Amino acid sequence: MDLSAGFSEANFACIKNSGRSFAVIRGYQSTGRVDPNVVASVRNARAAGIPYVDVYIFPCVSCGNPAGQMDALIAALGTENYGMIWLDIERLAWPANQVSNRDFISGLITAGKAKGKNIGVYTNYNNWESIVGLSWAGAASLPLWYAHYDNSPSFSDFVPFGGWTKPAIKQYAGDAVECGVSVDLNWYP
Predict the structure, then answer these.
(1) Which of helix, strand or coil describes residue 54?
(2) Out of 9, 71, 80, 90, which one is annotated catalytic?
(3) Which of 26, 42, 41 lies closest to 81 in space, CA to CA?
(4) For this structure, is 80 an active site residue?
(5) Cβ contact 40:72 at 8 Å
């Protein structure tokens, strides 16, 4: 499951008890700032016993400076115990220039890797086609987390794009309610 609001340890404990083993927490907001809830949510997820805790960056493209955004997120997280940083690449305020969009995404990747972080990409076929073009494979060496809201926790619907031939995670339902809080549901085999 992934989430964009602050969650308490009790929320995460309930979610863990319902059979969920991983959480992806918003770390950076599209408005151009580190999510003020990210550190507490990462701590709360770990304290509740969630074994896999990642974060995602929803970049602010109009703010520019992709390296600065990645650096700000990494600095805010400090020594918190998290795994991947996922780049949330979906159509929201991306310019029409696919070349500059590719450069922006590459800047995020380069900055994260320079700090020794594991980076992945969250997107889908339509978003990738619109933002950078289906043939751009500049992030294909990274794990792919794709969205397709078909309520099917499987990769049976996956169509290769962007150089990816197989995904790592699928977001199969959005705006679900677990333990009284709103989350998106994901499948991670």
Answers:
(1) strand
(2) 90
(3) 42
(4) no
(5) no
Encode pLDDT of 159-183 as tens digits: 999 999 999 999 999 888 888 878 8
103 is catalytic: no
88 vs 120: CA distance, rounded Å: 9
- Model pLDDT, residue 24: 94
> What are the φ and ψ backbone dihedral angles of 7, each rounded to 5 degrees?
-120, 140
d(CA 6, CA 44) in angstroms, rounded, equals 9
For residue 15, the number of C-alpha atoms closer than 13 Å in the C-beta half-sphere is 33
**Catalytic (active site) residue 71:** no
The model's pTM is 0.95
Is 2's pLDDT higher than 70?
no
Domains of the chain: 2-187 (3.20.20.80)
